[in-house]
Fold PadR family transcriptional regulator.
Amino acid sequence: MSLPHAILTALLERPSSGLELTRRFDRSIGYFWSATHQQIYRELGRLEAEGLIRALPSEQPARGQKKAYEVLPAGRAELARWTSASQDPKPHRDAMLLRLRAAAVVGTDGLEADLRRHRELHALQLAEYREIERRDFPPGKDGPEDRLRHLVLRAGIDLETFWTQWLDHALSEFARLPDTTRE
Amino acid sequence: MSLPHAILTALLERPSSGLELTRRFDRSIGYFWSATHQQIYRELGRLEAEGLIRALPSEQPARGQKKAYEVLPAGRAELARWTSASQDPKPHRDAMLLRLRAAAVVGTDGLEADLRRHRELHALQLAEYREIERRDFPPGKDGPEDRLRHLVLRAGIDLETFWTQWLDHALSEFARLPDTTRE
DNA sequence: CCGGGTTATGCAACTAGTTGCATAAGAGAC
DNA sequence: GTCTCTTATGCAACTAGTTGCATAACCCGG
């Protein structure tokens, strides 16, 4: 139940319209909490109904018109509450690991190509993160907020590094498997 | 849409009843594809209705009686199809990273304790994985199936190692933050 | 023989996320 | 001026996962 809190965070960083939020979820925030524009609009409606955010009064709210939102004090309080409350880590699900385990039973046929493709996708994401790091965290930009945000980005960078390396390892193991295992 | 395939994999490794599957999902399979017993029973019903698995005829199917299932040829074929089909990686969601980003805006108050708790949970999981590795993959146990399963376990071990280290890093950054950031 | 815990199975309702499609305004092409 | 493309907003239906609870048999102590 974190989408509303992801939106509150984004809106506190900068008041935005639904579409602007969608764009930002495609870039930074979405890297660890993805959401589609449909989800975002629905949630904006709920948050407004609950009195946690409000539409900026500047523009008229006609359809096809930008409608920007800002966070109200109640919204900030709710985000602070949620952030500090103890939460259990959610179990993660990874389809690729499951497929590999299945492959041990039904054969590895066809898997190697997708392993290779995933490796490239992770490498691409890693390059993007590094570019963001270069742009947003030059040496010297290390105020408290910068440090926290940089920490989050580092997790992304290190995770993508991990996955590229692990997939390389997996591919090298594949190369050593006897052909019979591949069905 | 991978729960049915997780169940097919588990049943191919060993025919089981719903409860046995639940136990196995709490241990090995569930480490990368978790499921509750309610999900499992529901899915077993669907898989049986689709003709991918069948109840072993040994026991009578009364309530409170063990009912074990085995995979039919159609089920094995479906699992092989799914394993080899190309799939896009799902975007991951990580509430802790989101909370850290929120903390950069609303303050880090209360977060540090949970960071520490998560660090311990990851360390515990890591110890469990290492124990499984010691028990299930002694030197010499390296047939093709073993190699694949070991690869999956290695991902788990390396991920938990990564998270413990990253959380240590995060905690050391917290120690250096000025008190004002902590609200 | 009965009362409480454990094993085993399962339904129903709810919450969260995804997919498909609809609507409307403005911008520029011709 | 109207056609089409892009921007912007949003509803509805569906799929997957979670939570809460119900049922029933067996097992063991007293």
